[in-house]
TrEMBL record:
SUPFAM superfamilies assigned to the protein according to its UniProt record, in alphabetical order: L domain-like
Entries under Pfam families matching the protein: LRR_8
The keyword Repeat appears for this protein: yes
UniProt keyword terms in alphabetical order: Leucine-rich repeat, Repeat
Chain intervals with Basic and acidic residues compositional bias: 452-462
Domain of life the protein comes from: Eukaryota
Protein name, entry field: Nephrocan
Region spans: Disordered: 445-468
InterPro entries registered for this protein in UniProt: Leu-rich_rpt, Leu-rich_rpt_typical-subtyp, LRR_dom_sf, SLRP
Length: 483
């Protein structure tokens, strides 16, 4: 049964079955077997999803003379008749994602600005596919079966700003592409092992480039000077050479995780770099001479054994430092930057945490010490950390003496959220948490003064504290803000 709605002219128009229509000329339909015939001719936005519409044809849309946005998702569409969209002169957005299309629809309207065809079975691109699309700004054809990119493929797209080709089967690309206004290019998760020397020649305004998840062994040559963000994770890079990056003076983010890097050269010449990610490489030492504006440095999951004050020389803004899963012993960490808000030392060989190394970290809000060899914590360490909000302690062999309860009182008074703290020794307390165990509290009430402190602690501990403290989480959770 069809619903009624008021059209813009005041006349009552029909809303098809399994659809909802609103006065703003939007129609949403689900579980359809064809494009509904009764869609109001005033419709500007049409959304159809989770349907079974194998073919689209010209007659489906011929009455929709003011349609601006057409979205057809997850509907099993396999083919589109020639000229199906040609008459839609007002259409600006066309999304046909998660269907079974094998080719780009033909004769698309010239006013189109956004075309999204992700998650289909398109295997070939031709220049004629995009003929006349002079206004197209966004083209998303990720997760298809495209193996090659002929140089003429995008020759009509003189105003294209965003091109997404992730998750195809590209082993090579031809050059050059003439896309002078392109700002965003992503070709992640393909099979590229190199790019032509002049591939980036026309990309004078490119700001974001992702080539992650390919088979690159070198940083591509002649990268655009305009780049702000460069993603090269999950490749096979063995080195980053000075000459490959020294001209990238505008680069703010550089992502190099999951490669085979043993060293990185040239980062110090990137004056605007704020993020450098080097996780899961083969670094034995910290990168040499880091750029002064760096705010985030991720050197986790490497082979680093020693960290010195010289490694952080000149860093005035570093806030996030990841050194987890290396081979660091805490006595090998000397003088960390006092700007840090987040310090991750998980999965090293740390046996002791001293006040000398942490006392200047007045801005620290997150400290992750998971999976080390720490058995005791001096409460004085935390008196130097006025802003500490999250502390991760699980996976350490805690020796649950009454000294730890003094540390516990300091942490509770600060309002710090603590994860972990399970006892390894003494044997009678194994498995207990020194942050929440009433049993350990009772054991330490061996004098009148400690009895009073124990009573006070039990008052402070709410009934749910044992379940809210000491919970081991699969992923580290961070929630903090900067002034």
């Amino acid at each position: 049964m069809m619903e009624r709605m008021e059209g813009s002219s005041g006349l009552s128009t029909a809303c098809p079955r399994r659809c909802s229509c609103d006065p703003a000329q939007s129609v949403q339909c689900y579980r359809a077997t064809e494009i509904p015939r009764e869609i109001p001719f005033t419709t500007r936005r049409l959304y159809i999803s989770h349907s079974k519409i194998k073919q689209l044809q010209f007659t489906d849309f011929r009455r929709m003379s003011v349609l601006e946005e057409l979205v057809l998702l997850c509907s099993g569409t396999e083919s589109i008749e020639n000229n199906t969209f040609k008459a839609l002169s007002t259409l600006k957005t066309l999304e046909l994602c998660k269907n079974q299309l094998k080719q780009i629809p033909t004769f698309l309207p010239s006013g189109l600005e956004i075309l999204k065809l992700a998650d289909n079975s398109i295997n070939t691109l031709h220049a004629s596919d995009f003929a006349g699309l002079m206004k197209l700004k966004v083209l998303d054809i990720r997760n298809n079966l495209i193996a090659t990119l002929p140089p003429s493929a995008f020759s009509y797209l003189c105003n294209l700003q965003s091109l997404i080709l992730d998750g195809n089967k590209m082993e090579s690309v031809s050059a050059p592409f003439k896309l002078p206004r392109l700002k965003y290019l992503s070709m992640a998760n393909n099979k590229l092992n190199s790019l032509p020397t002049n591939f980036f020649a026309s990309f004078k305004n490119l700001q974001f480039l992702s080539l992650s998840g390919n088979f690159l062994t070198k940083v591509p040559l002649d990268l655009p000077k305009s780049l702000l963000s460069l993603k090269l994770e999950k490749n096979q890079l063995k080195m980053v050479r000075l000459k490959d990056v020294k001209h990238l003076e505008n680069l703010s983010e550089f992502f190099l995780s999951e490669n085979q890097l043993t060293s990185i050269d040239g980062a110090q010449l990137l004056p605007n770099l704020t993020t450098l990610e080097l996780s899961k490489n083969q670094l034995h030492t910290m990168p040499f001479r880091l750029p002064g504006r760096l705010q985030k440095l991720d050197c986790s999951n490497n082979l680093i054994q020693r960290v010195t004050a010289q490694d952080f020389q000149g860093l005035q803004d570093l806030k996030h430092l990841f050194l987890d899963n290396n081979a660091i012993y805490y006595q090998d960490i000397i003088r960390l930057p006092d700007t840090l808000a987040r310090l991750d030392l998980k999965g090293n060989g740390i046996e002791d945490v001293g006040e000398q190394e942490l006392k200047d970290l007045k801005q620290l809000q997150v400290l992750n010490l998971r999976n080390n060899k720490i058995s005791a914590l001096d409460r004085k360490v935390f008196e130097y950390l006025p802003r500490l909000r999250h502390l991760y302690l699980d996976g350490n062999p805690w020796n649950c003496t009454c000294d730890l309860l003094r540390t516990r009182r300091v942490l509770m008074a600060k309002g710090t959220d603590v994860w972990g703290g399970q006892c390894a020794t003494p044997a009678e307390n194994r498995g207990e948490s020194w942050m929440s165990s009433r049993k350990i509290l009772q054991q330490c009430e061996d004098s009148a003064s400690s009895m009073e402190r124990g009573k006070e602690d039990r008052k402070k501990m709410n009934p749910n504290e044992a379940s809210s403290v000491g919970v081991i989480m699969d992923d580290d959770y961070y929630d903090y803000e900067f002034d």
